[in-house]
Amino acid sequence: MESYDIVIIGGGPAGLAAAVSAKRSGISSILILERDKELGGILNQCIHNGFGLHTFKEELTGPEYAQRFIDQVEELGIGYRLNTMVMEISREKVITAVNREEGLFEIRAKAVILAMGCRERSRGALNIPGYRPAGIYSAGTAQRLVNMEGLMPGREVVILGSGDIGLIMARRMTLEGAKVKVVAELMPYSGGLKRNIVQCLDDYGIPLKLSHTVVDIKGKERVEGVTLAEVDQSGKPIPGTEEEYPCDTLLLSVGLIPENELSNGMGVEMNSATSGPVVNESLETNIEGVFACGNVLHVHDLVDFVSEEAAAAGKNAASYVKGELRAESARTIRLVPAEGVRYTVPSTIDPDRMDETLTVRFRVGAVYKNCFVSAYFDDERVLRRKRQIVAPGEMEEIRLVKEQILKYSGLKAITVKIEEA
Amino acid sequence: MDIRNLTCISCPMGCQITVEMNGSEVVRVSGNTCKRGEVYARKEVTDPTRIVTTTVRVAGGKADMVSVKTRSDIPKGKMSDCVKALKDIAVEAPVHIGDVIMSDVAGTGVDIIATKNVSKI
What we know:
heterodimer; A: alpha/beta; seven-stranded mixed β-sheet; five-stranded parallel β-sheet; 29 strands; about 20% helix; globular; B: alpha+beta; three-stranded antiparallel β-sheet
């Protein structure tokens, strides 16, 4: 059986950055498996700019950002196989994959990095009544059709959900000549970045209706219109608030879900808040030598942080292969999300395995203004940072320092919470 | 006196900023909570610009479309002219990142450059 030190599942931004980092950490036997016909993943269809401000200190488009990493992969001579779909990974790290040239084949890995990214939540998850006419697309599907295949999904558009892809597509469809009538958002706030609301909706006079949802889709063969209604605090439509919008297309931008069929299949323990694997400080799952990074771990807003996280996973996988990542000790500290914090990545820290500093990423469950992001070592508050605003649409982070953690002998839990002023 | 209302994009706060203008002169900026808000508002009311990104058809390439952008930001009012100017053209593969696809788009003096590599079939 073919074997590699590290096999990376997915050649998008996470997989590419993990590969580059693993190689630079001294591992030469690396293989990336990618199901699409090119590397780069979702960045290939994200033709808008705004990528790379943190990583490269300049504003790149998605394809340009991807190419920076693809170039490094090529220069470093890292192997990859395209058009290759991974079917299964065993606990023993035997990967079963399929492609047209080789058929079904197996590869053995010493370490596996999960970098499969995420998928869009679909209509089926929303319980919208009505027929199943043509003209209902996820925003990402529409993005691929317009930007990569040069096809327009429709002319008169309503968008449900104000996630970033929906906002970006509102602008893109408008520039291509479509009429985007409205963006409806179930929540009382948008899930997208502020700059996208201004530059994709306000710039074009597209209304954003917060606390609104689609309650009916009209049309049997093709979408003919949708009915929007205002919702109450519990998200239930308020009778009498219905409004009709004639349109031929409904785009859904209603959330992303990490794609973890492979992880589940191999018995990776999952976090119900992120829908991604539970990982420790090394971004290692409950299965030794299996690491996760990028949107398969938790959905990110900015690719820069995906690259950063993936580089850490690549470095840690390299340490594991070299036998330098010591076994987890009994001193493992739990990271506990509380009061306003929905989750943290990672979920546990072994101080003996952590670097000098560790970035802990998390999301909040609601909008908080003039608040503090606090971290408690058991019952003692050790970190308190004033924030003008935190919002569910923007990932937050804190940095933990190893030296500080080591001072607290017997430390059991680090709690991250939002405290209102 | 003209009043312009803006949402600041400098951070997630999204401050609602009010700019009082006398013709093209900014008289007063209010509603911002930090300096960045004022800088953003002044630029946005006097000289709003954007980078425009779109796609152009490719002939004889491994992909049907190549993504492109304006090399630098162009006046906000020229965005739609810029996209229209690129609508019916096609470029021959191969295309490399940074290749000039059209110079001086829509009279802005700014070039359109490719943002993706497309090799020949």
